Amino acid sequence: MRRCPLCLKLDTQLFHQDKKRSFHHCATCGMVFADGATHLPPQAIRQRYGRGGTQDNQRQLSPFLLSLLEQITSLHGTEVRGLNYGRVLDTESHWQLNSAGHELSQYDPFTAPDPEALQSQYDFICCFRVFEHFAAPHREWQLFNRLLKAGGFLAISTRMLTNPSRFDKWHHKNNPAHVSFPCRETFEYLAADSGFRLIFAENDFILMQKPSGSDIKRDPNSCPAL
């Protein structure tokens, strides 16, 4: 029995075994995770992703973040301060964002390991296609909780496990750097456990809001069109 790296419960069991790795399922939060003994060493991850990840993910980050910012601005009603966590936005898009009056800090353990970025609080945090790389997602969740202001938004893009019976055929799990595989139930658990509002969790996009002490207003019947 393995301890779940997200909710830290021991309510887990072997879920899938292949020639290279074993995967376990947590009955508490619903996440499937790779056995820690099979995780790539840091130097291998650095070599593989030290330049920001795949070009496809880098191309998708800019429209995702700019669309997210437009939506949050419409809710917030003013310039916002955000954190782009786990990847680095291209220079042109970063300039475009800053020229609109917003402020974006960035943290990436390989290309932007800026500890000062993790010492402030933010109106939103963007986490694009990196959740699957979190070896200890409980640590990141606690970090996000601390860095978000009351009423702040957490936007996550990650491939969610939607068909457990087809896990053995799922190509996403074949990347050795992918170790955490959440499903909708995972984010429902996190929201309930932390008091967050789960606004949206479909199509590999998750939007959550921290308990509000702010004046941010939101139509409960609307969903962001990202």
How would you characterize the overall build of this protein?
- The chain has 226 residues and is of the alpha/beta class.
- It has a domain at 54-209: 3-Layer(aba) Sandwich (Rossmann fold).
- The chain has five helices and ten strands; from the N terminus they run βββααβαββαββαββ.
- It has helices at residues 42-49, 55-76, 91-99, 137-147, 184-194; strands spanning 12-17, 22-26, 32-34, 81-85, 103-107, 122-128, 148-157, 180-181, 197-202, 205-209.
- A six-stranded mixed sheet has the order 5-4-6-7-10-9, sandwiched between helices.
- β6 (122-128), α4 (137-147) and β7 (148-157) form a beta-alpha-beta unit.
- The termini are far apart.
- Mean pLDDT is 89; it is low at 214-226.
- It holds the Pfam family Methyltransf_23.
Any descriptors?
226 residues; alpha/beta; 6-stranded mixed beta sheet; 4-stranded antiparallel beta sheet; 5 helices; 24% strand; disordered C terminus; SAM-dependent_MTases_sf
